[in-house]
Design brief:
The chain is mainly beta. It contains one helix and six strands. The longest helix has 10 residues.
Length: 71
């Protein structure tokens, strides 16, 4: 997913000590989406020393939110 600047502008992010300039029409990449099975999510979490604590799945889209905790 990308968002597009409607005008030329500079955006300041003080906590990151960052200022970013955007031209009119310039986009920024805001999301990267992947498809994983429930087992794959558990395996990825485990390999990063997390445990899949809960998962909420919208079967219509399909889309899931996963709650991970440090193991």
């Amino acid at each position: 997913m990308h968002i597009r600047s409607r005008r030329e502008q500079s955006v300041s992010i003080p906590k990151a000590r960052l200022q970013v300039h955007f031209d009119e029409g310039e986009t920024i990449w805001t999301e990267n989406s992947r498809k994983y099975s429930i087992d794959a999510v558990k395996q990825l979490a485990s390999s990063a020393r997390f445990v899949l604590d809960a998962q909420w799945i919208d079967r219509e889209w399909p889309f899931a939110e996963s709650l991970l905790r440090v193991s």
